[in-house]
């Protein structure tokens, strides 16, 4: 059915098929996108640290939201890059540059937000443990 490319171009005809194609998209992100792997690994690291430091439920919500935003921004960045490449190929195009740079800027904003959230939550706990 899905997961191996059968050159399907028609609509998915079952929930299972839709789900398998979504899973295939996720695996493609992990396999092909170095930055996506980096953000996924960083998020897992932050989640492990959050467990170890026993942060509050509200802090968990913030940490998970910040991680989710970075991963979603990276996903949208990959979508933009792929569509731009599909459209312009190897040719230089000013609008292609704008689209790709803006998409990358979105990832940067989300990553900075995650760093600020991480510092607000982890720094006081770490400083308290050091004292
Ligand atoms: N067709 C193009 N026309 C103009 N500029 C381009 C084009 N393709 C890429 N660029 C420029 O090269 C940069 C890198 O593009 P590329 O598609 O390699 O992204 P990437 O290295 O995969 O980015 P990221 O690190 O965000 O995943 C873009 O941000 C853009 O400035």
From TrEMBL:
Source taxon at top rank: Bacteria
Native source organism of the sequence: Apilactobacillus apisilvae
Membrane topology of this protein: Multi-pass membrane protein
CDD domains assigned: UDPK_IM_like (cd14265)
Entry's localization field: Cell membrane
UniProt similarity note: Belongs to the bacterial diacylglycerol kinase family.
GO molecular function: kinase activity
InterPro entries: DAGK, DAGK_sf, UDPK
Primary location group: membrane
Keywords: ATP-binding, Cell membrane, Kinase, Lipid biosynthesis, Lipid metabolism, Membrane, Nucleotide-binding, Phospholipid biosynthesis, Phospholipid metabolism, Transferase, Transmembrane, Transmembrane helix
Annotated transmembrane regions: 36-53, 60-84, 104-127
Name of protein: Diacylglycerol kinase family protein
